[in-house]
Amino acid sequence: MSTTRSTTAYDSSAKMPYYLLKLDWYLNDSNHLEFTGFSNNRRTEYQNYNAAFDSIDGDARPNKTAFSNTEVLKNGGHTGIFKWTSYLTDNLTMALQYGEMHNKNEYYSVNAAGVVNKYDGNVFGDGPTCPYVLDYNPASPTYGSIIGCSTIATTPISNGMNQRDAGRIDFEWQLGDHKVSFGYSDEKWKSKQGDAQFVYYINGTGDDVDGGELGDPNANVYDVVRYLTGGSIQVDQKSWYIEDNWNITDNFMLYLGIRNDSFENKNGSGATFIKQDNIWQPRVGFTWDVLGDGSSKIYGSVGRYSLPIAANVALRAASASYFTDTYYTYDGTLDPVTKVPTPTGSYADGAYDQVYNGEDGSTPDPRAVASKGLKPYTADEAILGYQQLLSSDNTFLDGWTLGIKATYRKVHNAIDDTCDTRAIYNVASAAGYDLSNWGDEWNIASGLPGCYLFNPGQDLTVTMDVDGNGTADTITVPGSDLGPKAKRNYKAVTLSADKNTDRWYVSASYTWSKLDGNYEGLIKSTNGQDDTGTTSDFDFKELMYGADGYLFNDHRHSLKLYGGYKFSDEWEVGLNILAQSGSPKSCLGGGVGSYDTEYGYAGVFHVCDYGDIVTGSDRASDDVPSKVGSAGRTPWLITVSPNVTYRPSWLPGLSAQVSVFNLFNQIEATQVYEAAYSYSGASTRVYNNYGQPKYFSTPRYVRFQLQYDW
Predict the structure, then answer these.
(1) Are 561 and 576 in contact (CB under 8 A)?
(2) How confident is the model at residue 59 (pLDDT cuts 50, 70, 90)?
């Protein structure tokens, strides 16, 4: 069992200039032109350090040691939106809108020696300019150290971009008791993304690798893990809707609406790999003025909503990518700058070389990427509420609007990926296919995709040349072999109170809520995955053991208070208070061998205690399951943020505001490290940072704001 006490630390700084321009031009009484433009470029810099814990105790604190490198991230860009509103008749209004967003997404790092590391996104190129080299040669004085010119294993793209072009037209038509709205929109999202790993492991000699069983025991050996994604991908979305607000009586309004979406995802070669048409989303709601005098209101709504598949899914699932591990011999020398060994050939004639997930640089057959008949991502929402305006002879009590609202949301159909090639293998083998072209059930044949988009809980049907005979085969895996159905349920009750007078206003609310299930959503907080829609959830069914519980964003209590007071026409003060209970914490662990799997995922299983067996093939036999969200909660977060606004009488339209966010500088942990241990190699690695803060609430800062309206 490893007792390594090293870790990392960093200092960060960010510049986030923001510019906004809003122009309005009233051509005449019937036509209005608008332009809204803003720029939100951001530059973030991290100064990274090696660090060491001061003990092996659970409450050990890390301290910075040597400087490692500087990371620079640039993102953001500019957005412009034009809108033309035309009052065609007294009862018919048209709004025509077009907008463009252009954002960059750039990254590079500079190590302590000043060497720059970048990746241009070309999966067929040489990868990052500066490789990541680990010395695992037992005879080396730098054994166990990073010796290359890069200290970062994964290098994001240096010239990434996101572009969104969207146009829409909307109409609003008043027809007696009906206000009918309808419209159409067409959007295109283009993105150039990717990241890379070129990790060199210097293994020592052939004797250290396999005892010289298949190769020369005296040869110097290293292996390279090559992971490359990159390309330009696209999502096209077309939508139309129609809705009717029908005043059935003076006191009762019925809302009826329907929306239809179509999504088309294209890979790096421009080929469509998923197309979902006619996604119907009905919605119905009502508002009832109970007393008929405008002082009370009961309202409710029920609706279905959908989301497109994220563009980033195309990078690995549908576009050319590499994920290989290749063993080489070398002459014993290293490049003086990069520390990359000087190769002399292949070790053991490639006997230990592997292609993971079938990612060998070929573009997968689009039919093999997503399940046939893939259903769209949809969620349902139901709301029921009541509001009452108080009338009282008491000046303070008079004029308050009190409310209560209940909300329920449920994921109806989720889309995620499964990487359980074992399930494909078992079904194909049972059907009589010759799978000698596979390594084994855990290692799919080269050129076939290793992960597939599907609806968790439902059957997976893909078309691929599973036996390598040149003919595509259709394989159906029962949903029960791939794990449970995705579940995400949100329940909330909100109490509110609002009042607005000539001098002051207050808006207060308290929300009790509960969020549970086995599916956080398109990202995953417990292990920090932000690759939308392709997290480790559902990758194979054993990862979902213990995954059903309280989810990361389950804040049981939230209290919000917002208000302001006018001292005069020129001076006003405001106050914003948020008090929110903490989020659930989980305890994760495991890896190869957990629940008899052979797929890796170190520190991601829902197991917490590694038991008494820490080495050997049966080390996972006494792992202790740990339900998600069952390891306690983060602290309550209470922030007080006042502001002062000045509107000078000598220049109407000008306002100056100073806002202090988190006045008392209350800094609490919003998330902790949740991996307690992992299985790495033949041993168990314990993480001393388990339970220590990972992210904190935003510290106190001040914002100065000038605004001029004319």
Answers:
(1) yes
(2) low
The residue with tokens 């909503």 is 305
Amino acid identity, position 165: D
Q: Tell me how many degrees the CA angle 285-291-295 measures, rounded to the nearest 5.
A: 85
DSSP per-residue letters across 680-706: ETTEEEE-TTTTSEEEE----EEEEEE
Give tens-digit pLDDT for 91-121.
999 999 999 999 998 999 998 888 899 999 8
Say which DSSP state 149 is in. Answer: S
pLDDT at 515 over 90: yes
Contact 684, 1 (CB under 8 A): yes
DSSP 315: H
Alpha helices in 183-273 (DSSP H): 206-210
Distance CA(239)–CA(188), nearest Å, equals 12
Short-list 479, 480, 553, CA closest to 519: 553
Both tokens of 390, joined, read: 């108080």
Q: E strand or H helix at 313, and its extent?
A: helix 313-317
| Residue 584 CB neighbour total at 10 angstroms | 25
Convert the pLDDT of each residue in 323-379 to its tens digit.
888 999 999 899 888 889 999 999 989 888 888 777 888 777 778 888 998 999 999
Residue listed under structure tokens 């991908």: 233
Q: What is the DSSP string of 459-527?
A: -EEEEE-TTSSSS-EEEEE-GGGT-PPP-EEEEEEEEEEEEE-SSEEEEEEEEEEEEEES---SSBTTT
Token digits of residue 98:
């077009």
**Residue 469, token pair as written in the block:** 């005979």
Residue 84 amino acid letter: W
Q: Which position has the token pair 């299983």?
A: 605
* Collapsed DSSP state (helix, strand, coil) of residue 640: strand
What is the C-alpha to C-alpha distance for residues 534 and 451, in angstroms, rounded to an integer?
A: 9
Residue 100 tokens, joined: 């463009």
Cα–chain center distance at 312: 11
Dihedral through CA 595, CA 598, CA 603, CA 604, nearest 10? -70
Residue for token pair 């005879």: 139
236: how many CB neighbours lie within 10 A of its CB? 17
CB under 8 Å to 452, separation ≥6 — which residues?
317, 368, 369, 370, 371, 417, 418, 419, 460, 462
Query: Do residues 382 and 467 touch, judged by C-beta distance below 8 A?
Result: no
The span from the CA of 109 to the CA of 47, in Å, is: 10
Q: What angle do CA 463, 464, 467 make, to 5 degrees?
A: 135
Mean pLDDT, rounded, for 525-548: 78
pLDDT digits (tens, 9 = 90+) for 587-605: 999 888 888 888 778 889 9
pLDDT of residue 166: 96
Alpha-carbon distance of 681 to 492, in angstroms, equals 45
Q: Is the pLDDT of residue 2 over 50?
A: no
Position 199, amino acid: V
CA angle 664–671–608, rounded 5-degree value:
145
311 pLDDT more than 70? no
* pLDDT at residue 1, rounded to an integer: 43
Query: DSSP assignment of 375-432, as one string?
Result: PPEEEEEEEEEEEEE---SSTTTTT-EEEEEEEEEEEEE--EEE--HHHHHHHHHHTT
DSSP symbol at 314: H
Name the DSSP letter for residue 22: E
**Please, are residues 182 and 168 in contact by the beta-carbon 8 Å criterion?**
no
Strands 220-228 and 195-205: antiparallel
| Angstrom distance (rounded) from CA 398 to CA 497 | 12
